[in-house]
């Protein structure tokens, strides 16, 4: 655990609590590093919790401008994390979607005098060394010192407001103010030679007195020495500095690739053109490029690296690379051995965005477009055309305000920032090829959604309209009226139901004979519930089984109307009937095989008590001595039943419908 000692100024200290929302759409992470620690409010009081110990440059946390190193996180997405462990908060951040809402407690907000020297200031804080060196503040007036604590202590109960007392850290006599680099590492800075580089570059790395004495190398125009490079990237292997002269606008002749793990950002050399500028230099496939001319490429996408190379001014190029072992995992592709004559990184764009289009615009001093870095609901963050000069070549070529800029010539701008995109546009000459994607406006997206909802409502209303009974489709879980043409032909079904029947809640079809009128109509199925016939409800709870059967054995002149309910899933019950069959004694069952099994069409009483007491006409035998009967022909079923002796076990399926008829008046 890390202990943060409270800082106070002459005007008194205090705290400020505010809400911060971070959106990482289009980014790899939210960009905050956390640690469990404590703030000493006074000599006798401490505040423990989760604190921000680092902010990644150009991340959502950095760009929002509302977070500082040393801020305390009180809650995350509404969950109180004041007493949570560091790992628990990390898990919450990993489980979050693209947005997190933080409740932040900022200490000493009123102390503006020390703000510029406060190591908690918004931005990247360089990693501390890992050799147990005491971490002290360079500001004697209460800098935020950090010391190791052996245990995690609970947050003491106290009010939301407190006063932070002045606490001066004792600085030992042998302390060197250069030992600790707590500068803001975001943005750009100029070297002594006047070259602009990233603040996080190795050229801006700070050496302590001993390191300076050992470093006999003179800094180049980018501020590089091998001592500074090794210190800046001390966790990376086999660091190398490669220098060469670029010849005009000729390509470098290298292919780039990203990290094998899609959660990590890196820029690897995938191949080197044997005829390119780097062919005879100390580079090979698998090397990771971490910097070029003071521009940091570590933790950046490889697609963005080519734009960075194009933006580099001057003929001299200095690469900082890290060479990994052959078996180290890293690069997402195998090394390119046969280097193509030319590479076009824009080809994949049309696979990712099939509606993208290529537009050629002749640049005559200017293209006539203005761009912004923004966000669209369809594609997320990117570069968009914000304005067009009236009558310009871009307007005449069909460029539209709101188009997303995907590439300039062969340079992809999908992950470029504003400066990189405008740099590509400014340097482009002659006929410039732009790859654009026309996006729908939010109004048109909203209109399409409303039209889709309206279409669904109309389809729903259409489905609710009454259908012609002669052709009506039977839909699950809904009462449907159908008309069956019979013309004095038998209906040809077996049904179950009646007050003296095991099924008393409804009349259900359990077999359909292929020669009957219902089979010819081809709409009714086994387990369909018949609620009424010709408008007369089938009250099984008050009608005998015989009367129910007679309804389906009557001769009807022309047509019969049925109200049908098809339950999905079917309403059934299953049970077993076990008994001993004597040799030579028949079962006393007449069976009608179908796709569900064998339906009992008749029972001869007095054969076996188990059959007489448990089975009835209309029951379906689905298994016989463990053998499934679904879909078996009559001959096979007959042989199974005829040849069986001894112990018999039958699985029986019986309808168990819900009562859907009104009680008779």
From TrEMBL:
Residues 446-467 have a biased composition (Basic and acidic residues). Transmembrane segments: none annotated. It holds the Pfam family PDZ. It comes from the Eukaryota. Residues 19-108, 241-324, 356-440, 481-547, 576-656 form the PDZ domain. SUPFAM superfamilies: PDZ domain-like. Residues 134-160, 446-472 are annotated as: Disordered. InterPro entries: PDZ, PDZ_scaffold, PDZ_sf. This is PDZ domain-containing protein. It comes from Drosophila navojoa.
């Amino acid at each position: 655990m890390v202990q943060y000692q409270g800082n106070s100024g002459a005007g008194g200290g205090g705290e400020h609590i505010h809400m911060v929302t971070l959106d990482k759409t289009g980014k790899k992470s939210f960009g905050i590093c956390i640690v469990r620690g404590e703030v000493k409010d006074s000599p006798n009081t401490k505040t423990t919790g989760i604190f921000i110990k680092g902010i990644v440059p150009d991340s959502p946390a950095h760009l929002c401008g509302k977070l500082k190193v040393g801020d305390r996180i009180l809650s995350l997405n509404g969950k109180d994390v004041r007493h949570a462990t560091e790992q628990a908060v990390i898990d919450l951040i990993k489980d979050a979607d693209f947005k997190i809402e933080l409740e932040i407690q900022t200490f000493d907000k009123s102390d503006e005098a020390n703000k510029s020297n406060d190591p908690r200031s918004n931005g990247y804080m360089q990693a501390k060394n890992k050799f147990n060196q005491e971490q002290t503040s360079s500001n004697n007036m209460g800098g935020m010192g950090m010391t190791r604590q052996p245990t995690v202590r609970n947050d003491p109960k106290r009010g939301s407001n407190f006063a932070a007392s002045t606490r001066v850290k004792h600085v030992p006599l042998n302390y060197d103010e250069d030992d600790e680099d707590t500068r803001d590492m975001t943005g750009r800075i100029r070297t002594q030679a006047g070259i602009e580089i990233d603040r996080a570059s190795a050229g801006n790395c700070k050496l302590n007195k001993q390191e300076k004495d050992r470093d006999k190398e003179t800094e180049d125009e980018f501020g590089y020495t091998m001592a500074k490079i090794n210190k800046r990237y001390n966790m990376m292997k086999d660091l190398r500095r490669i220098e060469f002269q670029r010849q005009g606008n000729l390509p470098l002749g290298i292919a780039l690739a990203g990290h094998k793990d899609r959660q990590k950002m890196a820029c690897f050399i995938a191949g080197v053109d044997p005829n390119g500028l780097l062919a005879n230099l100390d580079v090979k496939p698998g090397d990771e490029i971490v910097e070029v001319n003071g521009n940091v490429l570590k933790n950046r996408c490889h697609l963005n690296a080519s734009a960075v190379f194009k933006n580099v001014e001057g003929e001299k190029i200095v690469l900082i690379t890290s060479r990994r072992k052959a078996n180290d995992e890293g690069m997402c592709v195998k090394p390119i051995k046969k280097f193509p004559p030319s590479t076009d990184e824009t080809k994949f764009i049309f696979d990712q965005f099939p509606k993208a289009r290529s537009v050629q615009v002749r640049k005559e001093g200017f293209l006539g477009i203005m761009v912004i870095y923004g966000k669209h609901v369809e594609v997320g963050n990117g570069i968009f055309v914000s304005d067009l000069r009236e009558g310009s070549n871009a307007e005449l070529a069909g460029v539209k305000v709101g188009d997303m800029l995907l590439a300039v010539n062969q340079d992809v701008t999908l992950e470029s920032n504003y400066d990189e995109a405008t740099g590509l546009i400014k340097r482009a000459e002659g006929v410039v090829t732009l790859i654009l994607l026309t996006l729908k406006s939010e109004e048109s997206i909203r209109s399409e959604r409303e039209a889709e909802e309206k279409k669904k409502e109309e389809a729903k209303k259409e489905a609710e309209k009454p259908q012609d009974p002669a052709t009506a489709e039977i839909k699950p879980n809904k009462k449907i009226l159908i008309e069956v043409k019979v013309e004095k032909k038998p209906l040809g079904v077996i049904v179950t139901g009646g007050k003296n029947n095991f099924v008393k809640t409804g009349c259900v079809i359990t077999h359909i004979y292929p020669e009957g009128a219902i089979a010819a109509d081809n709409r009714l199925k086994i387990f369909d519930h018949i609620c009424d016939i010709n408008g007369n409800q089938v009250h099984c709870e008050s009608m005998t089984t015989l009367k129910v059967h007679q309804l389906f054995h009557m001769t009807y002149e022309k047509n019969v109307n049925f109200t049908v309910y098809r339950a999905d899933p079917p309403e059934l019950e299953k049970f077993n009937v076990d008994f001993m069959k004597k040799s030579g004694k028949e079962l006393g069952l007449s069976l009608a095989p179908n796709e569900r099994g064998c339906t009992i069409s008749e029972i001869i009483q007095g054969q076996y008590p188990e059959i007489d007491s448990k089975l009835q006409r209309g029951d379906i035998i689905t298994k016989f001595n463990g053998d499934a009967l679904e879909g078996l022909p009559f001959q096979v079923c007959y042989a199974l039943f005829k040849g069986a002796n001894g112990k018999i076990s039958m699985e029986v399926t019986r309808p168990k419908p819900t009562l859907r008829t009104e009680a008779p008046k």
